[in-house]
Write a structure and sequence with these properties.
Length: 177
C-alpha cells in the first residue's frame, strides 16, 4: 500500500470541502474544536477561495483515494498547519509522512515559524507535534504548538525535489498512465 501526496490545484479546492463532508462527526470535532456541519464547511471553502494565495492543501492518497489532508495557512513569515487523517487509515504513519513533507515545503519557502492549534483533549495531535519538535503551551484553554523553522539549504531543496518526483510517479501510476 503506497501513500503518495500532492498539492491540490487552486481550481480543485471544492474537493477538500466534499472530502471534509464525508468524514465522521467525531473527526470533524477533533479537527475544528466544534461540530461543523455541511453549511459551515461550505462557508469555510468560500473563505479559502477568496484568499487562495494564503491557503495550500497537501493531500495524501492511496490508490487514488484521499486519506488525509494538511491545510497550510500562511501569513507573513508564519505557517499554520491543520492535519486530518481519515479514521480507517490512522496509526500507519501517514500524518508523520505528511508533516515531514509540509515542514520541508514551508522551510524551502523561507517561512520562519510554524503554529499548530490543538484542543487540550486531543492527545494524538499533541504527541504528533511533540514528535516533530513543536513546543506546546496552553493558550486560553487550548494548546498552541510552535516551532521555528530551520533555514532552507541545498539539501532540503534537493530532498523536496526528489520527494515530489516520487509522489508524481505514484500519482501518474494511480491514473494508469
Ligand atoms: C492526529 C492525527 C492527524 C494523527 O494521524 P496518524 O496518521 O494516525 O498519525 P501517525 O500514524 O502518523 O502517527 C505519528 C505520531 O503521532 C502520534 N500519535 C498518532 N496517533 C496517536 C494516538 N492515537 N495516541 C498517541 N499518539 C498518537 C504519535 O507520536 C505517532 O508517532 P509513533 O507512531 O512513533 O508513536 C489523526 O489522529 C487525526 O486525523 N485526528 C483527527 C483530526 C485531528 O485531531 N487533527 C488535529 C487538529 S490540527
Amino acid at each position: 500500500m503506497t501513500v503518495y501526496t500532492r498539492f491540490l490545484s487552486q481550481s480543485h479546492i471544492g474537493k477538500y470541502g466534499s472530502w471534509l463532508k464525508s468524514l465522521d462527526p467525531v473527526t470533524l470535532r477533533a479537527y475544528f474544536g466544534i461540530g461543523l456541519g455541511p453549511q459551515g464547511i461550505d462557508g469555510l471553502i468560500r473563505k479559502f477561495k477568496k484568499d487562495l494565495a494564503h491557503h495550500h492543501f497537501l493531500v495524501a492518497q492511496i490508490d487514488n483515494k484521499w486519506v488525509g489532508v494538511i491545510h497550510i495557512a500562511s501569513y507573513e513569515d508564519t505557517v499554520e498547519f491543520g492535519v486530518i487523517i481519515q479514521k480507517e487509515y490512522r496509526r500507519m504513519g501517514i500524518a508523520d509522512q505528511m508533516l515531514g513533507e509540509a515542514l520541508m515545503w514551508a522551510q524551502n519557502r523561507q517561512y520562519k515559524k510554524l503554529i499548530m492549534h490543538c484542543i487540550v483533549e486531543n492527545y494524538p495531535i499533541r504527541k504528533l507535534c511533540q514528535k516533530h519538535g513543536l513546543i506546546a503551551q496552553n493558550v486560553y484553554g487550548d494548546v498552541e504548538a510552535t516551532m521555528n523553522l530551520p533555514k532552507s539549504n541545498w539539501l532540503s531543496v534537493y530532498h523536496e525535489l526528489i520527494q515530489r518526483q516520487v509522489n508524481w510517479y505514484y500519482y501518474l501510476k494511480s491514473l494508469g498512465a
